[in-house]
Design a protein that fits this description.
Blueprint lengths: L7 H16 L4 H10 L7 H9 L10 H14 L5 H19 L3 H18 L6 H15 L3 H4 L1 H24 L4 H24 L6 H8 L3 H17 L2
Helix pairs in contact: 1-12, 2-12, 4-5, 4-6, 5-6, 6-7, 7-9, 9-10
């Protein structure tokens, strides 16, 4: 490779990663960057092994959970204002997140699902979970038909989406689940139930403590993402 031009966005992203690593020691910095922008290459092998054993590898891969955190943040921040303000901020955060993390397949899938939900909510309509899954699946498979045959992440993400959007609400309705922690547990359980067969078939292993581990870890991800973001931005703006 003789020469390569780096965009302003990529330069900012690289500077952000460098600043977080400069101000915070490992493995905390690597884990924080994994939470926020899905950088997994910096994680020590020992930490990768621990995440795999406890069924927590997905927390350092940018996915629908990260996008959901942003959308919920925007909705909570502007719920007292107009719906249009909430919609505009949600799309602004979503676009910024896509630019910073890169247009990976998992983030694009999550962004499509979230965008459909946002538009439906703005117009006061309810969109069927089946349709919410079918449109992004068809769109991404149309762009790259190889997703259907060889992309494990594509299959796992839509299996997890199916568990969260279709099976989890059924569980919550059946058992009258309304509080946030039981809802989080039911959604995690649903996602794992539908992804477990494929994971066991491909990797020949499955963590039996992953449900408990996710219950304790997932509620802490939003504050971890926020603190990592504050560290990176403050390090860029200050000496």
């Amino acid at each position: 490779l003789l020469n390569r031009s780096i965009s302003v966005l990529e330069e900012f992203r690289n500077d952000f990663i460098f600043k977080v690593n400069d101000r915070v020691s490992d493995p905390q910095s690597s884990l924080g960057l994994g939470f926020l922008i899905g950088v997994r290459s910096l994680l020590p092998d020992s930490l990768n092994d621990q995440l795999s054993l406890t069924g927590l590898t997905h927390i350092v891969a940018v996915s629908g959970y990260n996008v959901t955190i942003l959308i919920n943040f925007a909705g909570g921040l502007l719920k007292k204002f107009s719906r249009f303000s909430g919609l505009a901020l949600s799309f602004a955060l979503l676009a910024s997140f896509l630019l910073i993390t890169g247009f990976s397949a998992s983030v694009i899938r999550a962004a499509l699902v979230s965008s459909l939900s946002l538009v439906a909510a703005y117009y006061g309509r309810e969109i069927s979970p089946w349709l919410l899954l079918a449109i992004p699946a068809a769109a991404t498979a149309f762009v790259s038909p190889l997703y259907l045959w060889s992309d494990l992440g594509w299959h796992l993400s839509f299996l997890a989406f199916f568990g969260i959007l279709v099976f989890a609400p059924t569980l919550q309705k059946r058992f009258g689940i309304q509080k946030s922690i039981p809802k989080l547990l039911s959604e995690t359980f649903s996602a794992q139930i539908f992804t477990m067969p494929l994971i066991m078939m491909i990797f020949k292993q499955f963590s039996v403590i992953s449900l408990i581990a996710n219950l304790f870890v997932l509620p802490l991800i939003p504050i971890s993402m926020l603190l990592t973001f504050i560290v990176g931005i403050s390090a860029i703006l200050t000496p």
